Amino acid sequence: MQTKGNLANVVRLIPPRGMSLGEAQRRVRVADGGATTDFDHYYYTDEGPTCIGPACEAISLVGWNRPATQQCGPAPIIGLIDTGINRDHEALKGQSIEVLSGLDLRGSPSRRDHGTAVAAILVGRSDSDTPGLLPNAHLLAVDAFYRDEGTADRTDVITLVRALETLEERGVRVVNMSLSGSPNEVLRKAIASAQAKGMVIVAAAGNNGAGAEPSYPAAYPGVIAVTAVDKKLAIYSRATQGDYIDLAAPGVDLWVASADGGGSVRSGTSYAVPFISAAAAILSTSSNTFRSADLQATLESSTLDLGPPGRDKTYGYGLLQAANLCLPSLDEMPIAHSAAERDTELP
Question: pLDDT tens, 244-253?
Fold first, then answer.
């Protein structure tokens, strides 16, 4: 299997029986000194355990105003790399969702719970029980996950690169990646290539705990790494922390769409990512001259500072504040506010 090469020319090689992976890498380097070699790492959706307690409650913390966002510019296009989704769910039926295929996935089809939940947060019908942030947006979704040798949905490097290439071919600017895994040099180069073409990648910080190693692709340069907070602005207990964290968004005890209909309460940095992706998508259409770096800087300055003053390893620049996201010009960037400046609790 190989990619198309418009982001990275990646080929999956299988060593002959009896040859170690290390020896296979060495032989590739001997054959082509300019080639980058790495293992085909697996990546998983960043979903935490289901919340079953009576205190589960989903509330908005970012001041999102759906009617106001419609004045920001044309309805944006958002790319989604996730599991399959149920477009017949009551929150997604009739919405502008296009599922892109052709990745030749191995194993059994992915379960649709995670992808359906994330898709509904992004573009769910406004009259449903799980209304989306941008119900008028167009969603280009790529099912890049499968089940192989187990029950967990997972994907791999070459599939992720092919998914990114598919979205790049369609001119997608903002890509939601609610997933994480190990560092991989091949994936890093492909993402850098996508960023060089103007793609903004928003990814989950990971759910491995405060002391865990960084999660990827969130920890790659230029990728917007998103962590999750609860309704009291406390960090999600399982969120991975580190210098790479950029922004925080709601991701604890959220009522999200379930693949088989209705909804359920879920937690995880996965569910925080769509808030930032939606905000990035709005900014990407509000100005044709918005560079990726400008877009990210605007998001980082449109925050409520949490934790120690300034950027920190837990909350990054702080919790997204979207109420006036479209109003400032490039010369009038919003200023981050400290939680200590507020006398009242956010709704």
Answer: 999 999 999 9
